[in-house]
Specification:
heterotrimer, A mainly beta, B alpha+beta, C mainly beta, A: mainly beta, B: alpha+beta, Nuclear Transport Factor 2, Chain: A, 11 helices, 4 strands, 14% strand, RlpA-like_sf (chain A)
Chain lengths: 141, 294, 209
Amino acid sequence: MTRATDALWAGESTWFCCGPSWGPCGSAGGGACGDCRADGNHAAWPHLSESCWELTRPDLCGEHDLPRRGCGSVLTVSHQCTAAAVTVTISDCGPRTHEFCGEGVCCDGVCLTNRVLDLTPAAFAAIGSLDSGVLPVVITE
Amino acid sequence: MSWIEPVAALCPPLVAAALAATGAAKLFAGRRLPARAAGTALPRLVGGPRRAAGVLRATGAAELALACWLLAGPGRAAAGVATALLGVGFLGYLTVARVAAPGSSCGCAANDRAPISWRAFVRAGAVTLAGAGAALATTPWWTAVAHHRVAAGAALALGVAPLCRRPAGRALGRLRGRLFGSPPAAPARAGGPVPFAASVELLERSRAWETAAPLIRSGLLDHWEEDGWRILHYAGARPDPDRGGERPVSVVFALDATADLDRPLGQAIRIGVVDRETDRVLTGELLTGEPPDG
Amino acid sequence: MVSPTSRPDTAPPRRLGRRGFLGSAALGGATIVGASSLGALDADAAFAARGPALDPAVTGVFVAGRIGAVRGTLLYVAGGSGATHHVRLTNATSVWKARPTTADAVEVGDGLYARGVPMPDGSVAADAVWVNIVNLRTEIRGLRRSRIHLVHHHRELVGHTGPETAARYAGGALTPDLGRLRIGQRAQVLGAWRPGDGSVDVIRVTVGH
């Protein structure tokens, strides 16, 4: 769901594992761009490419105009509730927005809906707590 | 048969009361509406959460308008037909929603997160039948009420009681919090106590968290329960104007142990800030800008 | 609305334990009205009462890797690139390992994420560490009384459920009710990996419609 006019987009963000890691994350690999690392400030974007869009399908949740951003694009991600911010580089395709259509996170009376960003553990932990699992975020360029 | 006409004649006020209650719940849900709409199948069916909230709001307006029409008198038969059609529409929506989004909530009263159940179908069916009854009635409802006061009162109470149960419970909870300051040791709700993670989630979406976030450095250090409160302890830091740099503080929150995002109860969260080295309580100084006493 | 309800620098009663003292500090502190997804009741007042501006809460460095050794409060962490990081735990470090816990729960072989600040000696003083935490996109393949059988990245994964397992359905609040999970559903599973057998303790399972 878009929010402010100066924001690229706004919605929910979760976190995911990528790069060399442990446990079930050990098979994650470097993501669609090949350079994703858990300890780097990276992100997965649902419109990385047309083939990525077919996997994530944000349009099924009403997110029709999510702009396309390729590998290496830089975004600033701010926590909607606390304004804590982190700068990330897009390194992968995701999340699968359509699997959690309509899910919302609210604070300050504003609800941000739909999963539109996945952050690496490093980026997510910079603006929130990993055990929270999901955050409301505002994305700018 | 002799009982059909009085029953049909009593249908308009009965279904009008029910429609007015659910319509008002949707139309006047305010900021809650987008969150509630997101839990229904509507975002998937109409192409997005904004449209879903709009559809819920429009439905609420239609329900209220129908309620007024049913009670107003002129064109009662047409109002009954419209109500029956609305009930059929509800049944169709519920069927499609169950197929398209099996875990979604009904959105019927705009305050229910539970998945669509047989109760929702029964309610929609009742609206259809009551609408048909209203269409077939030949006696004005006020005449029927005057002749069958006890039956009318009982029918109205039966129809509206389920809609009032949850709002009344929430209002009582809020009143309780304001009068007594601390939450009572409420019995565990159906399905078990509020998970600890749900309390953390409620805190992290709260204005209390927004206010204290600049102080907090750690994740959750410790948590425990005390007199119906759930206490959450974080480590943080505050600027030290005397020595420069920062000084360590503890940030402690107290929440109603029975509240979660769906049932925030009194919506009050208490917060304390303590210097970790001196145990001096700094809440007023850091959060309200007031200078410390002494 | 922020309203102080007690004198701000009351001396702590020594007889109370640490929890008792901190609990009384919270209950006797400020009440902030207006919380939750339902929107703030007194938003303007609360913002007006915000405290002095501080640096952003989270700064510093992030460490990811597996714990090779534990020496007192110092963790030796083997990073993915082969480097070894020294992560120091303090009494202000939060430790998560399936639940908020203490440094005693950290073991050699555990996976670790740590957020902290760099120290002059090259170590990282941790603000928060998460041990074995995973957040996986899965599909539910089977449901048992105390287990959920999952598939993640085409591999089978056993998820153990317990009293602390919570579920979220279609964006609702977390609930202990797992009865609405269905086989075939896509589920986001936040949990703690067990290095011994590769299974996961499920802390939170989130499903959509």
